[in-house]
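re: that complex we talked abt at group meeting.

here r the seqs, copy pasted straight from the sheet so there may be weird spacing, ignore it
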Amino acid sequence: MTETETRNIGVQANATTSASDAAAMIGEIVSAVHADRSRLMDIVQAVQHRFGYLSDETIRAIATHLGIHPVEVEDMSSFYAFLNRELKGRFHIRLSKTPISMMKGAAAVAEALSAATGAAIGATSSDGEFTLDWTNDIGMADQEPAALINGAVVTALTPNDAAPIVAALRQQQSENRIPLFPGSGVPGTGLAKAQIAKSLVKSGPIIFGSEAAAADGLRAALIRSPEDVIQMMTKAKLRGRGGAGFPTGLKWNLCRQSISDAHHVVCNADEGEPGTFKDRVLLTEIPDIVFDGMTIAGYALGARQGLVYLRGEYAYLWDRLQAVLQERRRLRLLGEKVCDHDGFDFEIRIQLGAGAYVCGEESALLDSLEGKRGAPRDRPPFPTDRGYLQQPTAVDNVETLACVTRIMEKGPEWFAGYGTRESTGTKLLSVSGDCSRPGIYEVPFGITVNDFLDLAGATNAAIVQMSGPSGQCLAPKDFGRQIAFEDLSTGGSVMVFGPERDVLDIARQFAEFFVEESCGWCTPCRVGTTLLRKNLEKIIDGRGTLADIAAMTALANTVTRMSRCGLGQTAPNPILTTMRNFPEAYEARLRPEPFLPAINLHEALATAIDVQGREPVAEEKRV
Amino acid sequence: MSEDKFTFTVDGIEIEATAGQTIIQACDAAGIYIPRLCYHPELEPAGHCRVCTCKINGRPSSACTMPAAHGIVVESNTPDLNADRRVLIEMLFVEGNHFCPSCEKSGNCELQALGYLLGMAGPTLPYLWPQRELDATHPDIFIDRNRCVLCSRCIRASQMVDGKSVFGFERRGIHVRLNIDADHLDETTIAAVDKAVHVCPVGCIVVKRTGYRTPYGHRTYDEAPIGSDIKARRGRRK
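got the structure back, here u go
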């Protein structure tokens, strides 16, 4: 959204807004984005900002002003966790629910918040002041338990914090009723616990170690030809940092060679993998280096527009990032003739997401950017051919773009001097859980899990969840392996669990995570994630047999093979990798019978027993 | 062979394709049946059900969305793929509430027919027993969401063929439901002649007073297994 658009839609509705005023306000919001259907995400966020939620009336008004059907607006807006279809409390508290937050005491914090607000979890208090909800990982794994309050983040919570936070919120003026959306100034940032501790523990030689001034890398790129810039990425052997490791030079080449009126650069800042928070740190500490990387990519690809897809959980970064962009425009690092380079115009727009893990998948991200539900696309066509608005698009991770800038500053040979043959450079790892120094570490690729655990002060690790729930659950026998694309590939999440933690409970929480985050587009992921969770719960409840292990393995493999996108293909990983690496944990819960039914017969008959007022007669007692 | 024609193999059989065809289109034309559910020949593919998943040069992909290309090797009718397809069909059975004996679509139902074709004796997966809504407000059409398989055929047909957008999805994940462009069906612009009404593979969208015109036992898949029409094309070509 541009500054003008933000201003135009920044007016708040008050309680006396009439229906016709409301329709007019929505008309203004839609006009501010030129009634562009692809900007539906900005529109619904702005409407929610003004009216508190997306009522049926506001949805109809949006549809009318865009000239589309209400069912299309509902299709999109009902998809995202942060878009409300019903009125919520003046303050919406979303507590982060992850295995890490739970072991740091999030359940007790939730109870205390519930007592202090009078709102049950998942509900709104009777005075309409508070809504209390769980939400999936908010990128604060090193400072859990954490929560978002109307978009502002509070960290390191204890049950004792609940009463003072709630009291402070009650004092806040009513015009601070601002659920998520951009450009508002987030309330609640004055709260005592709204202090995000510095997460960077260890700088490395590349991303956080450079002494270069802002825009050095960009200027270095602009004196070369675009082809040269791409060549340097290839020479540096830079690979995507989101986890998949696709070669950046190859991606850019494919995109550049794809013939089109326009090309696009997209920065994937939808860092949703539980346990990851490196992109939050990059965008907080060195946003200019990331924007430089986007601008370099724009130059290399012949793009005039860059888009940052910022996850909704990071809305509190919005104002700061807009200020950085504004300063870049002033310094002519953005806009027409970037750095006085004739013929290179480049702008960056930030698109705020609204709570959907799947949007980190690049094709789902593109659909979300186009104002649709975040469902992945079938490939081909690949985004480098037909991406954003069906035009060639390079989608790159925040960290990858930071590396791009550093490569331009110091050269590909210097960059490739770190890491391994297949995995050059350094990797940002986000560490959390049972370790004494959680936070961000920049380490060269090739480091072993053991060496890394020593760095982070995880002396007693028994379970390491590498690369989040979509990655692998590792046992100590694997701690000698290397963190690199050729061995343990990772987007950067490292969750550490001590010997007292229950590996099956961790797997269950991750299975639940995939149930909540499946987009529902394809059968195997939509239905399979729920069936897998049920299957695992049966085993955890002590009703599982060897037959359930076989059934769960077969089901998990079908979901992996048949799912449409990376989410579904990796959703069974928490179960598959814990079964492989911690078989004893499963064996300990199994019953000796060859088979037990999925349902508990007595529970299933409970209603009938209640109605009849007697227990069923057991089979053998019948005459 | 003209310039835009090329060949590739499916289960070892060489078939001819035209540039722009998807694998399923080329196979349909050549008389090779790949099981499918959400795909409809008159609509853009959407890739929901994954039943048409084949191994293409060794990698699983949906045949309805994958463009045919020269020299590719497609595996379709293999025990492993058919086993996975059967699991997908079972998933759809347990996800909704499908009571074939009392359903007016029985015998004409593609889900049921695929169950038979793929050897589904009975679901081995636990039923989810969801609460789903019916809408019988329209004078000529009713919707029974118990039977919806979320294939989006009606959504696509209404949007692209009828130009009405009567249907859409709502919510996400296991909670996705078929939504309509009003509170009730009789408040929408839908009509019994619409394409959207006639593409439903199951008994979710039904035209009233037509359910039993053809008696059980004489319906499409009572006469011949699903895919027979496509396989017959191959017979004719030889």
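couple things i noticed - Helices of chain B lie at 23-30, 79-95, 110-117, 153-161, 195-198, 220-223, 228-237. Chain B has a mean pLDDT of 96.
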